[in-house]
Each structure stands twice: as C-alpha cells, then as structure tokens.
Amino acid sequence: MYTPGKIKDEIEKVEGNTINVIILDSPPITDDKDAVQKGKKTGAHLVIYGGDHRVVTGETITEFYIISTNTSSTTPLFLDVNSSKKAIPILYSDKSIRLESVKQNVSSAVYTALAFEYYRKSQYASAIKMFKHIVNYENEKTILFYIGNCYCELSNFDGSVPNKFLINESLLNESLVYYYKTIEIDCNYSLAWNNIGYVLEELGNHDEALKAYDKAIQLDPNNSIAWDNKGCTLDSLSRYDEAINAFDKAIQLDPSNSFAWNNKGSALYSLGKYDEAIDAYDKAIQLDPNNSIAWYKRACVFSLINDKEQAMSDLKYAIELNSSYKEISRNDSYFEKLWTDEEFKKLVNNTK
C-alpha cells in the first residue's frame, strides 16, 4: 500500500532535488486552496495531502491528493521580433490529482504531476519525458495535446541566445504529429485545431492554417485566440482588410488582448493608415506596457512619418525590453532615414 511518504520518495527518486515535495497532514487540510496556501509557505512545488479510506470491491483504498502550488491560469506565448501571435492557449487546472494506494495508479499520477510541473517551469524536454512515462498516454487526448505544445515551444526558442527565437521544422512537425493524434481522439478539440493552425502557418502552409483556424472558430466562436491567429495568417497573405476584421472580432471577444491590438496596428500600418496604427499600438501598450513588439512597431511608424524624437524614445524602450531589436533596427528599412543619425547609431550599436 502506498503512503504519502512513499509517494514523496518516488518523486524524489525520479527527479532528485529538482522538485520540492511536502506532505501536509497537520493541521488537517480542508481543500485544495488550503493545501496550496500552506504549501507555498514552505516553498514546496508539490503538496501531498489526504488519507481518506474507502472500500472498493472488498479492498480498502487510501486516497491521497497531489497538487502544484502554482495553480494560476496562464497562456504561454510564441513571440518573435516580427510577430505577436498568441498561439498556444493553456488553462491550467487548479484541481488536485487524486492518488490511490495502488501502485499502478500512483505511478502514472506521479509522472503526470511531474510533467505539468516541468511544463509550468518551461522545462519542456523534461515535461515530454514525464508525459511519455504515463501509462497509456497515447490514448489520452489532453496528454497528447500537451506533448504537442512542448514540441512546439521547443521548436521556437534557441536557449543559447537570450531573446532569440528560431524555427526548428523537425520539432514543429513532431508537434503536428501529436496535435493530429489529439483530434483523432476528439475531432471537436478547438484548442488543438488552433495550435494546428499555428504550426501550419509557421511551416508556410497558410491556406491549410486558415482552414484549421476556421475549424477552431466553428467549434468555439468565442475563441478570441483563434480569431487573432487567423488575422495574423491573413496579414501574412497581405489580405489586410480581412485581417483587421478578424482582429476586431478577437478584440470584441477579449478587449484586454493586447496582442490583437498590436496585430491590428500592424495591418493598419501595412495599409498606410499610420494614425490608426498608432492608436492601435497605443492601446496595446496601455494594456501591456511590456509588449516590446508594440513599442518597436510604433517606433517604426514614427520613423516613417519623420517623428524622430518619438521614434527614438519608443525604440529605446523596445530595446530595453528585448535587446535583439538593436540588430533588427540596424537592418530594418523603416529606420533607413535614421541609419546615419549619431543618436540612432549610439543606441543600436551600444557605443559610448
């Protein structure tokens, strides 16, 4: 029979000291929220509590619960210097995982808890390893979906260079495999269709990406992320008016979506509607002052309309948020008029 101590030992045996686990039994834990609060006070990543008994087919089962102390809902973002797509929506559950004192159940539950904890910590390779240890994971749509997300995240980030995003097509294709496996199990999984659209777009298959976004929207018309991503694909196809309509729909559904405002600004900017573009970037920055892309794009517009002071101010702040804009702006034709400007050269070359 498993006990909380044995469960803790199993986690530590698998992962050493990288994830801290605490067993809470005194004072009694009333619910998940109580467990999380008490776990946070100790600095633990995972909390084990419970110990209720029930009888199943003549056998006494002891139930324990395992929960992460980080239970906030988050949405990982794919950001690069040319785009602000909000591509991978994940709403983490704040419910605990129930463990029973039967080894085969406990083992998979432990791996599940570890996998999601690594996912929350953006340690995607470790998360994949844990997900694939779960018994029958190939038949669990949620696990397949998250494995797809892990490969997708890994495909976009070059960890050796701060703030640098690259595309690894082999990892993108691997993520696509898992997303397709997800919809084989549940063809109505809107989030999976959205993410399929994202991957197809990154692979340059814009027409198929649009079909995937349309499927996501058909299944969930209130999915503002899918509308936003559809707009990005339309923008990349130079279908700017259609893109703006999609961004407006995303904003209607979620007025606080700074990325949709930013993307709308980019489409307006492409149409030469600079005043409207600036208004959209203003809104994006108001909603998220750390949106480096909005600061950079607004700097581009100000440069185009010969407002050097505002262009330099915005570019400086964009660089503070993301240093890769130094190199980008040195080669970006929108700043061509400033390339010989000493203040500009000092900013982007980091000279004294």
TrEMBL record:
Highest taxon of the lineage: Archaea
Q: Which biological process terms from the Gene Ontology are attached to this UniProt entry? A: post-translational protein targeting to endoplasmic reticulum membrane
Q: Where are the TPR repeats?
A: 190-223, 224-257, 258-291
Q: Which GO terms describe its cellular component?
A: membrane; TRC complex
- What are the record keywords, sorted? Repeat, TPR repeat
User: Which InterPro entries has this protein been placed in?
Assistant: SGT, TPR-like_helical_dom_sf, TPR_rpt
Regions that span the bilayer: none
Q: Name one molecular function that GO assigns to this entry.
A: molecular adaptor activity
Q: Which protein are we looking at? A: TPR Domain containing protein
Organism (species): Methanosarcina thermophila (strain ATCC 43570 / DSM 1825 / OCM 12 / VKM B-1830 / TM-1)
